[in-house]
Specification:
The complex is a heterodimer of chains A (145) and B (112). Chain A has helices at 13-29, 34-55, 112-119, and strands at 3-10, 63-70, 74-81, 122-128, 131-139. The longest helix of chain A is centred in the N-terminal third of the chain and has 22 residues, at 34-55. A five-stranded antiparallel sheet of chain A has the order 1-2-3-5-4, with helices on one face. With 145 residues, chain A is an alpha+beta fold. Chain A is globular and about 50 Å long. Chain A has one domain (3-139): Heat Shock Protein 90. Helix content of chain A is 32%, strand content 28%. In chain B, helix 1 runs parallel beside helix 2 (56-69). Chain B has a five-stranded mixed sheet. In chain B, strands 3-5 form a two-stranded parallel ribbon. Chain B is globular and about 30 Å long. The chains are: A alpha+beta (145), B alpha/beta (112). The A-B interface holds A 13-14, 16-17, 38, 41-42, 45-46, 49, 52-53, 96-97, 99, 103-104, 106-112, 114-115, 118-119 and B 20, 22-24, 53, 55-57, 59-61, 63-64, 66-67, 71, 82-83, 86-87, 90-93, 95-96.
């Protein structure tokens, strides 16, 4: 059995916040275990923030369209937008940030893709017809939770 | 979001009155921290016990708050809830800050 739902919100920081919260709440209602819901919220926030801050950076904010498919083993979240492509049209490496630097040189950003890669099992990115389609997979285990 | 603080001796405790430090308030948080910590306490403890969620923008804002204190002053973090704690550990920011499970733990260290 697969449960799915979709939602759309405007790519502004405040609409993104309420959109992220409502997606996570809906997934909880559909039975996503709490431990996974936390990881999903972290990843969703980073991915949607990227759309707000980068994809639509030079345009008026457009739509962020989210579709979720949840079965007993996996959760797939698809995020679509009509903004600019990812740098070089591909997924960033998301390497760990080097923190062995003097305090005044510590990075104040750049953690997003690392968190996304760390907490997902699979990521797909398609640039097509002026759209970004990012698909994020989470393995769901109910054992031991 | 608001910040409230108390001072004793050379320590200032700043409490974050918000459930989220996310992209929507990261810049405001950084600016509020700047004005809130102007008094010059040598140690600032940031009480995060009300914060249930932080994203990388919020994390960056806390790093910025530490940097704007300058080299002679210290920012410690207390009362990290599970999701906030997880983000700090995943990004290894737990190696940059001293993290305390509770505000009591953080203030106890200062008294020894």
């Amino acid at each position: 059995m697969v449960d799915s739902f979709a939602c759309t919100f405007l790519a502004t920081e405040l609409d993104a916040r309420s959109g992220i919260c409502s997606v996570v709440e809906q997934l909880r209602v559909m039975g996503l275990p709490e431990a996974h819901a936390n990881d999903v919220q972290i990843v969703l926030a980073e991915a949607v923030n990227n759309v707000v801050e980068h994809a639509y950076a030079s345009d008026l904010p457009g739509d962020v369209r989210i579709r979720c498919n949840l079965n007993k083993k996996q959760l797939w979240i698809n995020i679509h937008d009509d903004g600019g492509p990812l740098p070089e049209g591909k997924l960033p490496a998301g390497n760990p940030i080097d923190l062995s630097v003097p305090t005044e040189e510590l990075p104040e950003g750049g953690f997003g893709w690392f968190l996304i890669r760390e907490l997902t099992s699979e990521i797909q990115y398609i640039r097509k017809d002026g759209n970004n389609q990012l698909s994020l997979c989470f393995e769901i285990s109910t054992a031991g939770i | 979001m608001s910040l409230t603080s108390t001072m004793n001796d050379s320590t200032q405790i700043v409490t974050v009155n918000a459930e989220r430090i996310d992209a929507a308030i990261a810049i405001q948080f950084k600016e509020d921290m700047r004005s809130e910590t102007e008094s010059g306490a040598s140690r600032v403890i940031l009480d995060l016990s009300e914060v249930k969620f932080i994203d990388s923008s919020g994390l960056g804002a806390i790093v910025a708050a530490m940097k704007q204190l300058g080299a002679s002053r210290k920012l410690d973090l207390a009362g990290l809830t599970p999701m906030v704690d997880k983000v700090f550990r995943l990004t290894r920011m737990d190696t940059v800050f001293d993290l305390y499970a509770s505000l009591n733990d953080a203030t106890a260290v200062g008294n020894t």
